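Lecture notes, unit on binding sites. The following record was shown on slide 14. It pairs a sequence with iron/sulfur cluster.
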Amino acid sequence: MPLPDGLGGPGPLADPGACSAPPARRPFGRGPAVSLFSLGTMRALESADQLGAVLAAALAADINHIETAPAYGPAERFLGQVLGQLERTSPTCRAGLVITSKILPGPDLAQAKEQLGASLERLGLARLDNLAVHGLNTPEHLEWALRGPGAELLAWALGEGLVGQVGFSSHGSNDLIAAALASERFGFCSLHLHLFDRQRLPLAQAALAAGLGVLAISPADKGGRLYAPPPQLVADCSPFAPLELAYRFLLDQGISSLTLGAARAADLDWARQLARAAGPLTAEERASLELLLAAGQQRLGADWCGQCQACLPCPSAVPIPALLRLRNLAVGHGLEAFASERYNLIGRAGHWWEQLDASACQACGACLPRCPNALPIADLLADTHRRLAAAPQRRLWG
Ligand code: SF4
Ligand code: SF4
């Protein structure tokens, strides 16, 4: 395989010293143990050089788990080139890496085999450590993976030794994730687990108890763009950084590894600092987390939504807790820009995010008696829409 430009000589990956210190690792299902942080390759898409620099920083941060996917554009190809160089400059370091890639649900068996083969070829691998179904988000996806062509593909890939274990990522409902876990087909899962979004934590705990590996999907970005926190959140978390507290909260929950999509070496600064921070929360961290949540609840007052889900199902299919969580973030924690961005993606991201926003509420009142906080849900949904919906774009013609 030809070397990518800039990676042929002594470069950031030429020094194997980064791998010399004893690492912190957590069990990961039926596969090799993984670092507390995982490098996601979805943001280093400019060149193999960029990914090489990010991977060098990841190695310096004790990271041994690299996540990629065909859906991330050139990521697999760049990673294959960088892994090839690492194999030449530091085979021991390369041998210590655990590689995960994914396959989107839906193709028939022949297409799925072809897609997995193409992934392996781009990565320059004969075998993947972990293969995840990418976005097990709907009942049709689950059917594909458990009883359809996906089931045949996963069994074939395991039988042929092309993958070490299979798992899934999901943005779907809790019931769907629970059904996937109950199938006992999977060795690991990637879930949205965040300091400010804890509703999937019981599923994660159940998965860990059953011996699965659990990855948290992007706690920095999807957890509230915590790498660029608003001043109010910084003040509430002091003396800790918001991202530091968010990471430590998840590590304390026993989550196997936290995924971090880095575009540059500096994006891995917290991962480096917390590379061995696997111990329980300190008293100071606990106190800061309690103060942070109390400050948010105080600002929200009687309008605080506890995310208990008791108001569901709504006859109009309004995802009440997800919408009020965004309101909690905006009003309680100053995360208005993040909440607005997420709100305005509703209905525009297919099965990857909610389909209906707060304007779908018919004010029928059916949810009201179910809320233990006696929240005026329809009024709060209307307020959420007023706060977070983007102003309609002005037409420049007509
Ligand atoms: S009031 Fe709105 S959110 Fe509540 S059940 Fe009726 S339509 Fe759904
Ligand atoms: S029942 Fe009330 S507190 Fe619970 S998620 Fe629904 S609105 Fe929030």
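Take-home: The chain is about 40% helix and 10% strand.
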